[in-house]
């Protein structure tokens, strides 16, 4: 805490010096002293960066920012949370969350894995050892394809709520769809249903104050995750809650790639058709999803509901496989490990769909080795991304994968936003985490890991259907791209560590 205050004092001193030097004018000697003071701070910060032993790419990126963006670069460095990136910012949350999960009775249950094959059992054992949650066999999952099917199901289940509704979203807009959801929530509050809504302060920046006030006045409990005004000064601004969770009465849960907004229904003409995937689940795993919500809720407003039996009663149902709900964030940084573990256990096929594909070295190596072993690897990406850096950083990683025999497909129909990995058609993950550094290291994410469930076959079928709207990127044609395109890719790749 003292170091944090010290760093912000330096920020204000540097701003004050810059103002005096460039706008007021001070004697030459003081200008030289100010410059020397600035250089000492930057050199000390660069030295501290090197001592942290991060990846060379990440270290060099921040050194470039510090050196080539005077004062502004240092402000970005301090306020982005880089000083406490290795878990310190959310250490308290991590410890408290783990303590809660360890006290839950259903966490101590041992899953029966005898019905599964070797790679399914190996991956299930891995998740059980490294996560605070547990796999559930008494859970039913159903895949929802695209916005129309997803929101039809969500609205239907919301209207059936009897006791409570818990919602957690990265993006929640008060456009046509958002307003319709808000109306349903207000109606349920008037019927006596408890409604809690948590939204990310940056992702939901367009959520109007009027809509928030209307919900609060109606009795909906609404809280932002890491408000901008406080997150900027406590270095948490760069860490966002990317989760999309709905839990209704502890019986039904929703999780996946779709936020609340008209574009997710394909109604934004600038974006066009929106290809995405969501999941509705019933049974024991819903309780895990609800626990994740309640722990995030405690973090944002201090209300402790995890021990309240009204919200914590498991409602098992007949399942057809294993469902493991896993939450990750900057306090754990394990989603990359989970994806790597899945990829390395493949024996036949690896099918990936991701809107933001900026894989780290470990995942790229695992994909190349699997391809050389003869495993079929398909990667589905959007033809056009919604950001210059992500678009070209993704393309910069394609040559090494294409040379290894990886099949890469560009989705043509609209914007591909689904986040799934399917291994050997009997192991899969679906959720909120992209395959990029932001999801791996900065965002709070939540994924379902499915083992032997019937819903995996639906994911396979949907993937094959979407391939019909894709254009395969052929190595020979891709290598013929111009020097301008290659330069853009190389430039964007420099920022991979923060994308």
From TrEMBL:
<keyword id="KW-0677">Repeat</keyword>
<feature type="active site">
    <location>
        <position position="417"/>
    </location>
</feature>
<feature type="active site">
    <location>
        <position position="244"/>
    </location>
</feature>
<feature type="active site">
    <location>
        <position position="242"/>
    </location>
</feature>
<keyword id="KW-0808">Transferase</keyword>
<feature type="active site">
    <location>
        <position position="249"/>
    </location>
</feature>
<dbReference type="InterPro" id="IPR030874">
    <property type="entry name" value="Cardiolipin_synth_Firmi"/>
</dbReference>
<keyword id="KW-0594">Phospholipid biosynthesis</keyword>
<keyword id="KW-1133">Transmembrane helix</keyword>
<comment type="similarity">
    <text>Belongs to the phospholipase D family. Cardiolipin synthase subfamily.</text>
</comment>
<dbReference type="InterPro" id="IPR027379">
    <property type="entry name" value="CLS_N"/>
</dbReference>
<keyword id="KW-0444">Lipid biosynthesis</keyword>
<keyword id="KW-0443">Lipid metabolism</keyword>
<dbReference type="GO" id="GO:0005886">
    <property type="term" value="C:plasma membrane"/>
</dbReference>
<dbReference type="GO" id="GO:0032049">
    <property type="term" value="P:cardiolipin biosynthetic process"/>
</dbReference>
<dbReference type="InterPro" id="IPR001736">
    <property type="entry name" value="PLipase_D/transphosphatidylase"/>
</dbReference>
<keyword id="KW-1208">Phospholipid metabolism</keyword>
<keyword id="KW-1003">Cell membrane</keyword>
<keyword id="KW-0812">Transmembrane</keyword>
<dbReference type="GO" id="GO:0008808">
    <property type="term" value="F:cardiolipin synthase activity"/>
</dbReference>
<dbReference type="InterPro" id="IPR025202">
    <property type="entry name" value="PLD-like_dom"/>
</dbReference>
<dbReference type="Pfam" id="PF13396">
    <property type="entry name" value="PLDc_N"/>
</dbReference>
<keyword id="KW-0472">Membrane</keyword>
<protein>
    <recommendedName>
        <fullName>Cardiolipin synthase</fullName>
        <ecNumber>2.7.8.-</ecNumber>
    </recommendedName>
</protein>
<feature type="active site">
    <location>
        <position position="424"/>
    </location>
</feature>
<dbReference type="Pfam" id="PF13091">
    <property type="entry name" value="PLDc_2"/>
</dbReference>
<feature type="transmembrane region" description="Helical">
    <location>
        <begin position="63"/>
        <end position="85"/>
    </location>
</feature>
<feature type="transmembrane region" description="Helical">
    <location>
        <begin position="32"/>
        <end position="51"/>
    </location>
</feature>
<feature type="active site">
    <location>
        <position position="419"/>
    </location>
</feature>
<feature type="domain" description="PLD phosphodiesterase">
    <location>
        <begin position="237"/>
        <end position="264"/>
    </location>
</feature>
<feature type="transmembrane region" description="Helical">
    <location>
        <begin position="7"/>
        <end position="26"/>
    </location>
</feature>
<dbReference type="InterPro" id="IPR022924">
    <property type="entry name" value="Cardiolipin_synthase"/>
</dbReference>
<comment type="function">
    <text>Catalyzes the reversible phosphatidyl group transfer from one phosphatidylglycerol molecule to another to form cardiolipin (CL) (diphosphatidylglycerol) and glycerol.</text>
</comment>
<feature type="domain" description="PLD phosphodiesterase">
    <location>
        <begin position="412"/>
        <end position="439"/>
    </location>
</feature>
């Amino acid at each position: 805490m003292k170091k944090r205050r010290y760093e912000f004092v330096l920020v204000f001193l540097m701003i004050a010096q810059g103002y005096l030097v460039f706008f007021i004018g001070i004697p030459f000697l003081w200008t030289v002293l100010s410059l020397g003071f600035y250089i000492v701070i930057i050199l000390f910060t660069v030295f501290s960066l090197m001592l942290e032993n991060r990846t060379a790419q990440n270290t060099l990126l921040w050194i470039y920012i510090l050196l080539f963006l005077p004062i502004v670069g240092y402000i970005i460095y301090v306020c982005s949370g880089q000083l406490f990136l290795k878990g310190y910012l959310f250490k308290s949350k991590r410890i408290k969350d783990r303590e809660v999960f360890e006290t839950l009775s259903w966490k101590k249950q041992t899953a029966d894995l005898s019905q599964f094959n070797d790679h399914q059992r190996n991956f299930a054992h891995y998740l059980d050892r490294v996560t605070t949650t547990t796999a559930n066999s008494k859970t039913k999952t159903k895949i929802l394809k695209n916005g129309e099917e997803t929101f039809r199901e969500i609205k239907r289940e919301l209207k059936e709520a009897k006791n409570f509704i818990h919602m957690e979203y990265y993006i929640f807009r008060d456009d046509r769809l958002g307003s319709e959801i808000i109306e349903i929530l207000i109606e349920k509050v008037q019927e006596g249903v408890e409604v809690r809504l948590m939204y990310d302060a940056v992702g939901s920046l367009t959520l109007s104050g009027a809509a928030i006030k209307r919900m609060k006045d109606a009795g909906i409990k609404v809280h932002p995750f890491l408000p901008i005004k406080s997150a900027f000064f406590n270095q948490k601004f760069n860490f966002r809650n990317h989760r999309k969770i709905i839990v209704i009465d502890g019986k039904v849960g929703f999780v996946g790639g779709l936020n609340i907004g008209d574009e997710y229904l394909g109604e934004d003409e600038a974006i066009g058709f929106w290809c995405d995937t969501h999941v509705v689940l019933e049974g024991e795993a819903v309780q895990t999803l609800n626990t994740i919500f309640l722990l995030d809720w405690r973090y944002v407003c201090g209300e402790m509901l995890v021990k309240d039996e009204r919200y914590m009663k498991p409602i098992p149902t007949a399942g057809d496989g294993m469902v493991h709900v896993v939450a990750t964030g900057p306090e754990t940084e394990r989603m990359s490990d989970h994806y790597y573990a899945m990829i390395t256990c493949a024996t036949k096929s690896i099918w990936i769909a991701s809107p933001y594909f900026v894989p780290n070295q470990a995942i790229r190596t695992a994909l190349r080795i699997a391809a050389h072993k003869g495993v079929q690897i398909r990667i589905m990406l959007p033809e056009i991304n919604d950001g210059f850096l992500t678009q070209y950083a993704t393309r910069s990683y394609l040559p090494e994968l294409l040379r290894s025999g990886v099949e890469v497909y560009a989705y043509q129909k609209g914007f591909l936003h689904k986040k799934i990995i399917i291994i050997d058609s009997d192991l899969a993950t679906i959720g909120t985490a992209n395959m990029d550094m932001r999801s791996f290291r900065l965002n709070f994410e939540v994924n379902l890991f499915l083992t032997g469930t019937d819903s995996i076959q639906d994911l396979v079928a949907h993937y094959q259907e979407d391939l019909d709207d894709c254009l395969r990127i052929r190595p020979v044609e891709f290598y013929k791209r111009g020097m301008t395109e290659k330069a853009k890719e190389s430039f964007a790749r420099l920022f991979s560590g923060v994308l």
